[in-house]
Write a structure and sequence with these properties.
Oligomer: single chain
Number of helices: 13
Order of helices and strands: HHHEEHHEHHHHEEHEEEEHHH
Number of strands: 9
Strand order of the largest sheet: 4-5-3-6
């Protein structure tokens, strides 16, 4: 499938996918025979495992087996193109970002919408993907945005859901959650306009801001709209920020004049890079090849560094300093004094 880096390509694929009506046409589109699609839909195979969240609690991941995932990846591209052409003004997460888009939607531009707002409300939903049922996906695929007949809509819904809802781990779950939240967005945008709020949604993180105080009544009304649309507040993450409080939007600090990285982010990243350098030096002295977890650690550091560059810019002094530090760390010298294994910092 062509790289979707231009708006024209995105619109072309969206139009083609929206013209598909039957299961035979769908099979041609994904390059898989109808009987095989039917088997994948009726007997979905997933590898289920858990990973720890930041709070230490387990997060269940449902990773589809390769044949099913391949079909989901193709469907994801088409569904993403369709949603890009029909996205709400509030949606900022799980979106395509073509290079010729003059209004890019991402974690930074999401936070920038709330600059210089005195009051801020953060809302998070419980089990955002799992709240979207197979039946709800079928209804979506039978809406005016698509042309599927009922058997085809049901087939796609079965291909993209597991245990009766969107799985945490399927390529199609993020975009289908965005599609499912369209009515929610429209209703909250209308409500926000009436009450002087700016409203943005990045996946299941909702942010409301305005110049006047945010009252308990406002929270109750947002909760009611969410409930009607099938989504439930994570009450533990609900937070109202007064004018004097630090305002965090999807992990970024929003102030009067701009958006910054969270306090301590750069210091923690530097400390992790130094740990990484120590690991590589010890491995070099021991004559060992880099292991898988070291590669994963490096990838994680590069991701954090890329995020810092995205927010600060590549010419920022802190980014350039940390970038050099990581580059130096990946070229360990074995000419240093020996390191005591008793003092080695096991952080993994």
């Amino acid at each position: 499938m062509a790289r979707l880096n231009k708006i024209k390509k995105i619109k072309k694929l969206a139009e083609y996918f929206a013209s598909i009506h039957t299961t035979e046409q769908l099979a041609t589109f994904v390059g898989v025979p109808v009987y095989q699609l039917t088997l994948l839909a009726e007997f979905p195979a997933y590898n289920c495992f858990s990973i720890p969240k930041q709070n230490g609690k387990p997060r269940m991941i449902e990773d589809p087996h390769k044949p099913l995932k391949k079909v989901q990846q193709i469907l994801n591209s088409a569904l993403q193109c369709g949603y890009y052409c029909n996205k709400t003004h509030a949606a900022f997460g799980f979106l395509l970002n073509p290079e010729d888009d003059t209004d890019p939607r991402n974690i930074l531009t999401n936070a920038q919408r709330h600059i210089n707002r005195l009051w801020l409300l953060n809302v998070d939903y419980v089990d955002f993907f799992h709240a979207v049922s197979t039946h709800r996906v079928v209804e979506l695929l039978l809406s005016d945005y698509f042309s599927f007949d009922e058997p085809t809509a049901l087939l796609i819904a079965q291909l993209c859901t597991y245990k009766g809802r969107l799985p945490m781990g399927a390529p199609t779950s993020p975009v289908l959650s965005n599609w499912a939240a369209r009515t929610l967005d429209e209703e909250l945008l209308a409500w926000s306009h009436r009450h002087g709020f700016v409203y943005m949604r990045f996946a299941d993180d909702l942010t409301f801001s305005r110049q006047e105080p945010i009252l308990p009544q406002h929270v109750q009304e947002i909760r009611a709209i969410s409930t009607v649309n099938g989504f439930t507040f994570n009450e533990q993450k609900l937070k109202i920020c007064a004018p004097s409080a630090e305002k965090i939007v999807t992990g970024l600090v929003v102030g009067k004049n701009g958006v910054q990285l969270p306090s301590g982010f750069l210091g923690e990243l530097e400390a992790e890079i130094l740990k990484f350098r120590t690991v590589l030096e010890v491995q070099a002295r021991a004559g060992r090849a880099q292991s898988v977890w070291v590669e994963e650690f490096r990838t994680q550091l590069e991701g954090h560094l890329s995020f810092a560059s995205f927010v600060l810019g590549e010419d920022h002094a802190d980014y350039r300093r940390l970038s050099r530090l990581l580059e130096e760390a990946m070229q360990p010298s074995v000419a240093h004094d020996s390191v005591s294994w008793l003092h080695f910092n096991y952080f993994f």
